[in-house]
Amino acid sequence: MKPLNPDSIAAPFARYSHGVEVPVGHRLVRTSGQLGLAADGSIPEGAEAQAEICFANIRHILAEADMNSDDVVHVSAYVTERVHMAGYMAARDTFLAKRDTLPSSTLVIVSGFTRPEFVVEVEVWASAP
């Protein structure tokens, strides 16, 4: 993966790259949006706790394709209010903590999800040989 951060534009706001080039011949995996729903059906309060579940679910999905968080090339996230951005970003930064090359990223504020308890949803694209 090659990060694309041209000097001719402003630097990213946080720990992400403006763009990512995927090498020729790599496999791609795209996850569905993951909500903060634990395996036991519980939904914790707060964006950070929910995002931690989202990223744990993503780890399991990527493992099915013999991939891990190092293979993520893009993260899309959705939160229901600006107040949830910090909690989501903390969980995202933990998910990406061991990486030098960062994926591209999109964060959008939405009006809601299928159930009012959910405050964050995360999906990723990953790529590996």
TrEMBL record:
Molecular-function GO terms, alphabetical: deaminase activity
The family this protein is said to belong to: Belongs to the RutC family.
Pfam families: Ribonuc_L-PSP
UniProt-listed InterPro entries: RutC-like_sf (IPR035959), YjgF/YER057c/UK114 (IPR006175)
Protein name: Enamine deaminase RidA (YjgF/YER057c/UK114 family)
GO cellular component: cytosol
Top-level taxon of the source organism: Bacteria
